[in-house]
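General statements about sequence and structure are easier to judge against a single worked case. For one protein, we set the task of working out the structure tokens from the amino acid sequence alone. The sequence in question and its structure tokens are set out directly beneath this paragraph.
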Amino acid sequence: MVQDMRRKPYVAAAVAALASIGAAGYSAWVQVDDAMAMQTGANAALAPIPPGILPSGMHLPAQPAPMRPEQRRALAVAASHTPLDQKIFNLFYADQVRSGAPIEQVRRLAQHLARLGWRYTPAQQNLILRNMLDGDYDTIVDRADSLVRRQKIPEFAFAILSAMEAIPEVHSDVVGKLRSNPVWRRDYLSVITPGASPALMAARVDTIENLLRSPGGISRAEAAQSMTSLLESGRGRIAHRLWRQLTRPIDPRNLVLDPSFRQAAVMAGSGVPTTALDWQFGQDLGFSAVPSPDGVVINWDHRGAPTFITQTVALPPGRSLALTITTPDQQGVAALLHPTLECGRATIEFTGTAIAGGVRYTTLAVPKTCDIATLRVGGVVDAGTGQVMLRITKVDLRPAS
């Protein structure tokens, strides 16, 4: 132990600091576990978390009272026998913060604690919070990464990573971690909600744009929740732009993504999440719409006015639109289908004309306030009785010439 102390003088200094708290002449041997047991509850190892550091909905652990003098003396003795034990020094660090010790003393303890390893979860949590309070972001991303790689307190680690993602000076560090494709990448990218702060929303857009430019790109499954959150928070046009970059439509002039339902057929039953920017297929009592490699197949018993398929689209405000629905080898489809554009509380109607192989619809000019809308294709009211099967092979929506 003497050699260890000489080789690592910071250990000797930290042990001396602990021992100075103990009473002179206190020499009873105390095992590490015994010393820790003197503090009741696991939360003794966690320093208090100041208000405003973590999201408002996150659970904050209840804090025990500061240690009694005899407990600190027990820790000092335990540390003198195990000077490299991170648990002992972390327990002392947490107590010093809880007791309101001078900040320089707390920082010196934190520096020593940081030298003792990366695998003790409470110590990493305390060090992350210390770094945040001191404005020292150099190692925060690495420490959060180490937690989630070991599947430790992911809620806390993801909250920290989100905070770092939204800080311009540290944003590139988070993106760098994501580019290395860590095991936690998809889970992290999926935790954003529509209620996230504007700063985090803006940062997430930058993150996705960076990943889109990276060699490995970003998958639909990883980006889906971010797209949904952007849509639901009123950033639909941004979401649509990013989703088009990811899905790479064959015909960029078509405002509809996946017009022939090929991607929808591949995604069906895959378990990969979709967004409102993809085709959504209705199914209820009396009707169903199912994607297939040959288009979407609709079975309907004529009851009600169901919505068969929907997709959120970006529109050119102030322009009239042309919609073509291809339904090969079927007569009378124009009398059965009812497409609309839902833009906020407004409904934009189409006027349809049967053409060879389908129906061509047009609208009047879209209001200038409408730049994102939901295209709905449903059935008309009281179309008839009995079962009918429709097949739509393509949907084309673009500005009218």
